[in-house]
Write a structure and sequence with these properties.
The protein is mainly alpha-helical and 127 residues long. Helices cover 69% and strands 3% of the residues. The protein has one domain. Strand 1 and strand 2 form a beta hairpin. The longest helix has 20 residues. The radius of gyration is 15 Å and the shape is globular. The mean pLDDT is 90.
């Protein structure tokens, strides 16, 4: 397994804190609120997307923070590439007026990336 040199050693308590922070971040960004009468959930990422230009840049910055945490946790480059792909899709399509805002309701890159990270860590602990 290849990891980035920037991955620092950490203990299980530190890993648990980082994962808890990432879970909370994904919830706030993607699923914190629900449209009444529906099963559609959204978060700050969708709301920020309503601010022309700046909203998508702020959402990108928050997603990149989560990505940086994945790097620190020692995620392999192939998985990091998938995570960047999710962020790029979310940011790129999210910038399209109106259609991007609707897209943001359904494509939850932070939740997708958290799931990828958790699946990776679970596989690592089974080895």
């Amino acid at each position: 397994m290849t990891t980035f040199a920037a991955a620092a050693p950490f203990d299980l308590a530190d890993q648990a804190r980082r994962l808890a922070r990432l879970r909370q971040l994904a919830r706030i960004m993607d699923t914190a609120l629900r449209i009444p009468g529906t099963r559609i959930r959204f978060g700050a990422d969708s709301a920020l997307g309503l601010i022309p230009g700046a909203g998508d840049v702020i959402g990108l910055g928050i997603s990149l923070f989560a990505f940086t945490e994945a790097v620190r946790l020692g995620v392999p480059p192939r998985l990091l590439a998938r995570m960047i792909g999710n962020i790029a899709i979310d940011t790129g399509l999210g910038t399209i007026p109106v259609a991007g805002d609707i897209f943001d309701l359904f494509f939850k890159s932070n939740t997708r990336n958290l799931k990828l990270l958790l699946e990776h860590l679970e596989r690592e602990t089974k080895m």
